[in-house]
């Protein structure tokens, strides 16, 4: 039985290791995609309102509210139209409290927040 020396098995192992290490060098690391827990409006003032008034329910799967960015959950609501969504936000609906914990929000802010959470654009 021939004796194996380090050079007979080391070279392929080193080549394989170097190839594996170099394979990851070509791409830059991408920032993680926002999740329901980290998504925030790009407008700083709106982000503060979302964080203070909406995130508690719309980023919590156990709250029963449609989650931010969950287009399937928002689709039937969006189909009702912006006026209905705005009415539900202002007057409350099911588990949604009146004014959605944002007593100072304007209709424009509510529409912007609904648009952000639903992923839809409203006029």
Give the end-to-end Cα distance, rounded to a whole number of Å. 82 Å
**CATH superfamily of one domain, please?**
Cytochrome c-like domain
What do we call the CATH topology of one domain?
Cytochrome Bc1 Complex, Chain D, domain 2
**Oligomer state of the chains in this structure:** single chain
**Tally of strands:** 0
Shape: elongated
CATH class of one domain: Mainly Alpha
What's the architecture of one domain, going by CATH?
Orthogonal Bundle
Tell me about this structure:
Keywords: Electron transport, Heme, Iron, Metal-binding, Transport. Pfam families: Cytochrome_CBB3 (PF13442). GO terms for molecular function: electron transfer activity; heme binding; iron ion binding. This is Cytochrome c5 family protein. InterPro entries: Cyt_c-like_dom, Cyt_c-like_dom_sf, Cyt_CIE. The protein has 123 residues and is mainly alpha-helical. The protein has a domain of 75 residues: Cytochrome Bc1 Complex, Chain D, domain 2. The protein has 5 helices and no strands. Helix 4 packs across helix 5. The N and C termini lie far apart (82 Å). The model has no long low-confidence stretch (mean pLDDT 83).
